[in-house]
Amino acid sequence: MTITAAIITVSCAVLLLAAGYFFRSRRRRQRRQAQKVKPHRQTGKELPATLARRERPSLDSAELVTNVNQRRDLSPLLDRIAANGRFSTMLLSDDDGLPLACTSGSENLDRLAANSIRLVMTADRLSGEENPDTLSMMVRDTSGTTTLYRTFHVRGKKLFLTAVSNDLRLTSAALDPAIIKIEAVLTTIAG
User: Fold this and answer.
1) d(CA 63, CA 61)
2) Triad 115, 116, 119: Cα angle to 5°
3) Does residue 68 register a pLDDT over 50?
4) Is residue 20 a contact partner of residue 13, using CB atoms and an 8 Å limit?
5) Rg (CA), the chain
6) Does the domain formed by 58-190 have CATH 3.30.450.30?
7) Mean pLDDT across the stretch 100-117?
8) Taking a C-beta distance cutoff of 8 angstroms, is the pair 155, 190 a contact?
């Protein structure tokens, strides 16, 4: 009996040691996994803030209040949109490439208007008759300058809004809220 009791005691001790070892290794593994998961949770929390920073120009332009009854010149509206969207230059031109309005202190307007016509003509050729029309294009050059081109229609006339910025987080939809404001003003002026 003593030998059997000794074997059982040793076996129990070995099992307890093994169980403690496995329990500790499991806890360590869980802690490592928790540490790996924790940065992803933080990224998940930061994601809405990152999206908000990226979409800030669009959100700021959407919040602009326009008084369409008193506005004959679009330059003050473009100045406000440019300030909210952090655009250095904005140009509104017609389908012939003629400037209709621009932000104060804008430079190289003829080049911007010509480039917008070229890009829109290229986009029209690429889309063809069967595909939907291209609404916006974004061009980023080697100096880090981003130029957004957006087409829209007011009373059947095709217009182009061009905006220049050094903000690399811009999206091709950043001008969409501004288009709504400009369309409202142009519709009121034309009416």
Assistant:
1) 5
2) 85
3) no
4) no
5) 31
6) yes
7) 85
8) yes
| Strands, E assignment, the chain | 89-94, 99-102, 136-140, 146-154, 157-165
Confidence of residue 96 (pLDDT cuts 50, 70, 90): confident
> Residue 154 is which amino acid?
V
Q: Between these two residues, 180 and 127, which has the higher pLDDT value?
A: 180
**What's the rounded Cα separation, in Å, for the pair 32 and 187?**
61
Q: How far apart are CA 155 and CA 65, in angstroms?
A: 22
The answer to whether 112 touches 162, Cβ cutoff 8 Å, is yes
Domain ranges of the chain: 58-190
Q: What is the DSSP string of 126-140?
A: HHTTTSPPP-EEEEE
